[in-house]
Amino acid sequence: MKFAHFSDAHLGSWSGSPDMRDFSVQAFEKAVGVCLAERVDFIVISGDLYDSPMPPYDVLSRSVLILRRCATASVPVYVVPGSHDFSPSEKTFISVLENAGLVKNVAKMHDENGKLVIDFTVDEKTGAKLAGMMGKPGGMEKEYFTTLAKESTESGFRIFVFHSALDEFKPIHMKGMASVPKSLLPKGFDYYAAGHVHKPKIIDNGNIVYPGALFPTELAELEEYEPGIHIIDTEKKSNARLPIKLFGVVRVDVNADGLTAAEAEKKMLEKARAAETGGKLLLVNATGTLSSGAPSDVNFAAVREAGIAAGAFTVKRNFVGLSSVVFEETKSSSFSVEAIEREMIAEYCGKSPPPSRDAAFAAAVMRILDDEKQEGETVSTYETRIKDNAMKLMNI
Predict the structure, then answer these.
(1) Is 84 in the active site?
(2) Which of 47, 226, 238, 259 is deepest in the core (most CB within 10 A)?
(3) Architecture of domain 2-243
(4) Is the pLDDT confidence value at 235 over 70?
(5) Which helix (H) or strand (E) holds 166?
(6) What are the extents of the domains in the chain?
(7) pTM, to two decimals
């Protein structure tokens, strides 16, 4: 058989950046196009297809059209809900897609004497047997892993799809991320399709594969933007990673130590104008302590205009390392709201890994409260949905 594996499409991400919000869907469309061109038997998506349980209408509409291409080509799409897809009320669009016959959720199990037993989904064409575990905010799916039957006696080629970081293989910059030990994974599967960690990683000689995010969700990921999908051919015993890159990134560094905000701005303008971007994204990375003024005093709109005039299609800034002697800001090594929330939760719920149950619960609550009001949704319906999700999480 020949199948494709990718993860963390985060369709609908960058909602606050008009110049970036379309790229996640473009990356998904390109990935599916490559899968169909490779004539795969089926596609596996290991979580976070969407960036929220109820994505914007335009994102839903376009993703449905893309998934219909798979259905028309008789290429099944197997998924598990990720931590961003997850909703305590289970009212996520993954369920709608499954009911429409566009995807199959393989995170199915049942209880037997206090143990969770895997229910397999069998691919009709190849006979491959798929099972999975959903991801939950704050790594709360770990509770399910602890009660999961550790071994399956099913025969045939078996794929386990999950959306969790593993304790032993987390990137350094994700040390605060909730995770599960590798020992909790069920034994005996031929391929473990992993998701949640946005950096690609292959473990156990290709047996466990994290394909990484299909498109970056934060500035830090843009600096190492090399997305891809995996094509596994069991006859050839090969696992090929194919690139799904949409554009190049050029980074310019500005040392503003000892400069005024106006002087730092001038230096950024010079760097932006001189950068050889050629239609790429320009990332302005500023560090140091300003002698006067604050980072917010820098007219970044002017820097952006200069970069675009020089050939960049858009310009982004990283001012995390830029500070001022006028005041001290709370520092974070992260770029995204979600990553900063993880750091703050870790600080107040215990810093020593693994994160406490309180930290996982706090992260889950934050995820619920992050859910935005959807287009056309009344205030009353929105408030009821948030309240119901919170109450379900707290078992009230």
Answers:
(1) yes
(2) 47
(3) 4-Layer Sandwich (3.60)
(4) yes
(5) strand 165-166
(6) 2-243, 249-324
(7) 0.81
